[in-house]
Design brief:
900 residues, alpha/beta, 17% strand, binds adenosine-5'-diphosphate, 8-stranded parallel beta barrel, binds magnesium ion
Length: 900
């Protein structure tokens, strides 16, 4: 029989850490912590398989199946805690928590203090001798359960939460400012007002039966797997919908029992920089999410951290020590235990941990541990440090690098000179490093209003996820280093300044005020997420420095990869950047842009509009020296490595003059009338240029173009050779569908090369290959390989032609397709392994069946996307090629692919 429920508690557990697929990350680690002697309140985990069952078979069938196991597990918790569910004297209170395989912070909602009702609150008042605490727990329960299970949400984005509104009203009536100032009677009043509000809004009575509460909460967790923000997070993080979430039910411990209680979150190392410094935040007399909710100012755990924090906030040491003491000062014994525990957990998991703890009347409890989210910089530093500390080996260290996250390290920082004149408006907390500049928006769903926006909020919530993703940076007025905004931004690698207390925001008027200065929606500001500074206006940025630890990680990549990584570069400048990032060659050098530049476009237009071969050759002769210079430059920049140069590809009509003035200029140049030019332009019009007169179709209609380009390339290589420079040209014929198309072009290239060699009295090595981008070429790759020295899969066009999606128009329907689950990803970004992948692997196999040593690579966008790179490795490609800034990412992905 399948087991659906796994218990843990009192140093025992039915699950363990490596069961995260079944128990979710949270459940698996709660079990594991029990096994290694870390104090964890007892509880049980309902498996992710039950969530899948719930989605397939529905609620009643599922609950019927698991009911006996859940009841037995509740009995187990009751026994360990010596309490009873629904009991009038000694009630058992639990939390109901979601927990998927991959951590989805804030994605699904937790209900605390479940089991509370009129009887329980009295019993707990009596038992604890602390009625205020009992009623505070009760009002929190109604608030959370009302929100999560009964869907009491704000009516619109301008409105505040209905429960918060009631709280604010009562505060005003009582003339108080803080939640902690409520008396027991005030809390009772809140409970009453909450209950009537629930009744009024939902039409239902707030449930009093703990079992009804429990099943309601379990259902809510399962339902939340499919809520829009969970769906969005899964899409962003590419987490499959099928995984499902587990539900953790766990005995409550209370951080809100008074001044010897508290709750907090901590990291075993610095999640922003990676430094090996234990750090975190806590609040005395608080529960659950209070620390991250930004309602009160959280205090630092360590004394060192507290002093750093005070300095950043401009708070004097005296005030800090009296008003915001660290845990280390306030509860030294608790601090000692917590510090030992964090070290124990880090030693055990050999990775930086992000943990949640609660102190109940001088006893420490751990409620969660997981591998902490971190910035790209911290990821690199922690992997390198842990390797050097001997905790992990090189392969593990390499696998700890999330290739896509390296991107952050390659992003700009503020320019030093621009910084000198930058005006600091205020300072918040350095929540997630990097530099960002953009126009102010106040609502997450308006982040796309400007190409570069800064999302400014009092605080963020999971609903804001999509907008946070779009914005260049995030600024919040409230919340600490572990606030929602800070944690999510670090996970996204997005610049964030949190808790900038001087920032006043009025959502209604859409105005932000910083020390008297007003900023409206659309005004420019800049953020430094590494220092917490907020600047007025736009501040220029520069690219970061990439040595040190980053260099070490790149060395591991070289050591472990089989494939090499090339770059797509059209200019010596880009080639140089890519080489510095470790590119070994150019996988795609497009020659088009070279024709657009400066005066060349005139010669090019003359060539296209020429009516005779003679006239065409005359124009081509003008282009030859330009092309030769360009090729010399780029071959030299990649000295010693192969440079794949693609012959002219775009449709001819892209080059011809469409504006009257240009047409006139062209007419004068060619000595014909404007009308004639117009007629020629008209003749070149195509209904479907993507499938029109482009690629090798041009070279086959006008062989003299190929001749000129081949001559320019070979002459460039010969010239370089004569200067002692090792140039390795690889000439690539685009868009072939039949071998004959390639054969005719290859013949021209070889004949031209022979001619150049004779003229120059010397030779160079060169290759002639083709791009495989028309499906027919992949299907007949064995024939094509007879003529080709190499294949380069042009997966952009191959995707376009195989799906039949125009890449330039797909923006209209792809988002809908992804939303509806028709496609998992944008196939122009992530290679569709199931479909396009078949053509690619068939192409490789067929090609190598006639030419075993055939060199094969990929040069579409996919060459820099980690999952696609791994696919390329699995089918035996020699290299991938991507844009210069993606080279490090591709190198890591290539190495990781080869480790498996
Ligand atoms: P999330 O995944 O959003 O972090 P959690 O399930 O971890 O949600 O819980 C939210 C908050 O409630 C955390 O601060 C957690 O420590 C706290 N919490 C959860 N269960 C309990 C419990 N049984 N006793 C005390 N606090 C709890
Ligand atoms: Mg440490
Ligand atoms: Mg948590």
């Amino acid at each position: 029989m399948t087991k659906h429920v796994y218990t843990f508690g009192g140093g025992h557990a039915e699950g363990k850490a490596d069961m995260r697929n079944l128990l979710g990350g949270k459940g698996a680690n709660l079990a594991e912590m029990n096994l290694i002697g870390v104090p964890v309140p007892p509880g049980f985990t309902i498996t992710t398989e039950v969530c899948t069952m719930y989605n397939e078979k529905g609620q009643s069938a599922t609950f019927k199946t698991i009911k006996p196991e859940v009841e037995a597990a509740v009995a187990y918790v009751e026994k360990l805690t010596e309490t009873k569910f629904g009991d009038k004297e000694n009630p058992c209170l639990v939390s109901v928590r979601s927990g998927a395989r991959a951590s989805m912070p804030g994605m699904m909602d937790t209900v605390l203090n479940l089991g509370m009702n009129e009887g329980a609150v009295e019993a707990i008042s009596k038992k604890s001798g602390n009625p205020r605490f009992a009623w505070d727990s009760y009002r929190r329960f109604i608030q959370m359960y009302g929100d999560v299970v009964m869907e009491m949400k704000p009516a619109s984005k301008e409105e505040i939460d209905p429960f918060e509104e009631i709280i604010e009203d009562l505060k005003e009536e009582k003339g108080i400012h803080l939640d902690t100032e409520f008396t027991t009677d005030d809390l009772k009043e809140l409970v009453n007002r909450f209950k009537s509000a629930v009744k009024k809004v939902t039409g239902k009575d707030f449930p009093t039966d703990p079992w009804e509460q429990l099943w309601g909460a379990v259902a809510a967790v399962f339902n939340s797997w499919n809520n829009p923000r969970a769906n969005l997070y899964r899409r962003l993080e590419q987490i499959p919908d099928e995984w499902g979430t587990a539900v953790n039910v766990q005995a409550m411990v209370f951080g809100n029992m008074g001044t010897n209680s508290g709750t907090g979150v901590a990291f075993t190392r610095d999640a922003a920089t990676g430094e090996d410094i234990f750090n975190g935040e806590y609040l005395i007399n608080a529960q659950g999410e209070d620390v991250v909710a930004g309602i009160r100012t959280p205090q630092q755990i360590t004394l060192e951290g507290s002093r750093r924090w005070a300095e950043l906030q401009g708070i004097s040491e005296e005030k800090r020590a009296s008003k915001y003491p660290s845990l280390e000062e306030a509860m030294p014994e608790m601090y000692r235990q917590l510090n030992d525990t964090q070290q124990k957990l880090e030693d055990h998991y050999s990775d930086m941990q992000d943990l949640e703890f609660t102190i109940q009347e001088g006893k420490l409890w751990l409620l969660q541990t997981r591998n902490g989210k971190r910035t790209g910089a911290a990821m690199v530093k922690i992997a390198v440090d842990m390797l050097e500390e001997g905790r992990i080996n090189e392969k593990t260290a390499l696998n700890r690098i999330d290739a896509a996250k390296l991107d952050e390290l390659l992003h700009p920082v503020f320019e030093k000179d621009a910084m000198k004149s930058a005006v600091v408006l205020t300072q918040g907390l350095p929540a997630s490093p990097g530099a960002a500049t953009g126009q102010v928006v106040f609502f997450a769903d308006e982040a796309s209003k400007y190409p570069e926006s800064i999302l400014v909020r009092v605080e963020t919530s999971p609903e804001d996820l999509e907008g946070m993703h779009i914005a260049k940076g995030i600024l919040t007025a409230r919340g600490g280093m572990t606030s929602h905004a800070a944690v999510v931004a670090r996970g996204m690698g997005k610049c964030c300044v949190s808790g900038a207390g001087m920032v006043r925001i009025n959502y209604k008027t859409r105005v932000m005020t910083i020390e008297g200065k007003e900023f409206r929606e659309g005004d420019w500001i800049s953020l430094n997420g590494s220092t917490g500074e907020v600047y007025e206006g736009k501040v220029a940025t520069v690219n970061p420095d990439l040595s040190g630890d980053f260099g070490k990680v790149m060395d591991w990549a070289s050591k472990f990869s089989r494939m090499s990584v090339r770059t797509n570069a059209d200019t010596p400048h880009d080639a140089k950047i890519a080489r510095d990032f470790g590119a070994q060659g150019i996988g795609l050098c497009r020659t088009e842009h070279m024709f657009f530049e400066g005066e060349r476009i005139m010669a090019m237009r003359e060539m296209i509009l020429a009516k005779t071969e003679d006239a065409r050759r005359k124009a081509l002769d003008k282009l030859l020296p330009y092309q030769r210079d360009d090729f010399e430059g780029i071959l030299k920049a990649m000295e010693g490595y192969g440079v794949t140069i693609r012959l002219l590809d775009p449709p001819l009509h892209e080059f011809v003059p469409h504006e009257e003035a240009n047409q006139k200029e062209m007419a004068d140049e060619m000595g014909i009338s404007v009308e004639e030019v117009k007629a020629l332009v008209h003749d070149l019009h195509e209904f479907n240029p993507m499938l029109g007169h482009r690629g090798c179709r041009l070279g086959n209609s006008y062989p003299e173009i190929t001749e000129m380009q081949a001559r320019a390339i070979i002459e460039a290589a010969v010239n370089l050779k004569q200067k002692g420079i090792d140039a390795k040209p690889e000439i690539m014929v685009p868009l072939i569908g039949t071998v004959k198309e390639l054969k005719l072009q290859a013949d021209i290239i070889h004949a031209t090369a022979k001619m150049v060699f004779e003229e120059k009295g010397t030779t160079v090595d060169y290759l002639v290959g083709t791009m495989i981008e028309v499906p027919r070429a992949a299907l007949t790759a064995d024939k094509v390989a007879e003529v080709a020295d190499f294949f380069s899969f042009g997966t952009n066009d191959l995707t376009q032609m195989t799906f039949g999606y125009s890449r330039d128009d797909a923006g209209k329907f792809l988002p809908v397709y992804i939303e509806k689950g028709i496609l998992k990803n944008d196939p122009f970004q992530v290679l569709d392994q199931e479909g396009i992948g078949q053509l690619v692997s068939m192409g490789v196999e067929k090609g190598r069946s006639v030419k075993p040593e055939l060199k094969v690579g990929i040069c579409g966008e996919h060459g820099g996307e980690p999952s696609s790179v791994k696919f390329c490795d699995s089918i035996g490609m020699n290299y991938v090629s991507c844009s210069p800034f993606r080279v490090p990412i591709a190198r890591i992905a290539a190495a990781q692919a080869n480790l498996k």
